[in-house]
Amino acid sequence: MKNNVELLSPAGDMDCVRAAVQNGADAIYVGASSFSARASAKNFSLEELKEVINYAHVRNVKVHLALNTLIKNNEFNTAISIAEKAYEMGIDAILVQDIGLATTLINAFPKLPIHASTQMTVHNLSGVQALERLGFKRIVLSREMSLPEIEYICRNTNVEIETFIHGALCISYSGQCLFSSLIGGRSANRGRCAQPCRLPYTLLQDNKTIDSGYLLSPRDLCGLDFLPALIEAGVKSFKIEGRLKSPEYVAVVTRIYRKYIDLYFSSNPYEINLKDRKDLLQVFNRGNFSSGHLDSHANHDLIYKEKQNNMGIYIGNVSNYNHKNGHVTLNLNDFLAVRRFYLI
């Protein structure tokens, strides 16, 4: 069976570029110094972007540029200029949220694939077909869609479909959240989300507390179990979230999804190794993973209210602490090892 899908990995800095490329990504997505939905990532100047493109292309890896924020009128020419310079450098695609910017780029650079960001909230067939008519080459679907909905779209369109397969989820609809703007004065649609969904809250009923904790903080998505069905549905590209994550995260997640995409296209049975699940959990998890919205049934494990950031994995208990020398004795439930990542 021919492997005709793409593994798309995040790269917030040059170490992450190397981590993604060396662990099997078919393509990477990066942000420029402006108009990126991850404004707090290091991102890349135009000079650095050229280095990224050269590094990836010589290794047969594509580079997608995220210009995926809403654009103000007085910023429009600057955004077009960045896209033009990236096009001249050999960028493989540009990811866009702003419909005005997208249509301008489609008309100005007809040979450059323009991808619709998940921030465009494309969540049904009508939306996909409308963007296809405008000239978009790929649609990144909203992360709130189920497998049957994704399959229905893939079966009824000729445009490439991309879905998120692993990483952080938002509590709100993709591209429609104004929570950060309202309480933090920072717009998620301008790349500056303050992540208010990761804050602690108290739930009241009749002025009585009935729950408290990180009540709006979703667990991260792990789509390994859904990968075969999504491939069979016709998804073209599988996207790993994480332009704010470490090179170690990028390396581990890319390596594991590369393994299972290749496994699906091999003659071997698709069975997920427990160690691979543990590696994914160890590199980053918020109270284990969930299936996000991929399952058509209600997800009662979407939220983890106890902790909003990385949990690591349980390895054992502290059995003794020596106050004099600071030594800690552990009873381990699992093995410990030092891992090193060499990025060249």
Commentary on this structure:
It is a single chain. The chain has 344 residues and is α/β, with parallel strands linked by helices. The chain has a single domain, classed as Alpha-Beta Barrel (TIM Barrel), CATH 3.20.20.380. It is built from ten helices and 14 strands. It has helices at 14-22, 46-57, 76-89, 99-108, 125-134, 147-155, 179-184, 227-233, 247-264, 274-283, and strands at 6-10, 27-31, 62-67, 93-96, 114-116, 138-140, 160-167, 201-205, 208-213, 220-222, 237-240, 289-290, 316-321, 328-332. The strands form three sheets. It has an eight-stranded parallel beta barrel with strand order 1-2-3-4-5-6-7-11, surrounded by six helices. Helix 3 links the parallel strand 3 and strand 4 (93-96). Helix 2 runs parallel beside helix 3 and helix 9 (247-264) packs antiparallel against helix 10.
Total number of domains: 1
- What is the H/E string? EHEHEHEHEHEHEHEEEHEHHEEE
- Portion of residues in beta strands equals 15-25%
**Strand order in space, largest sheet:** 1-2-3-4-5-6-7-11
Looking at the structure, the CATH topology is TIM Barrel
Beginning-to-end CA distance, first to last residue:
32 Å
Described by its quaternary structure, the protein is single chain
CATH architecture: Alpha-Beta Barrel
Number of helices: 10
| The CATH fourth-level homologous superfamily | Copper homeostasis (CutC) domain
> How does the helix and strand content classify structurally?
alpha/beta
Global mean pLDDT: 93
CATH class call: Alpha Beta
Any low-confidence stretches, pLDDT <50, length ≥5? Answer: none
Q: Find the count of extended strands (DSSP E, 2+ residues).
A: 14
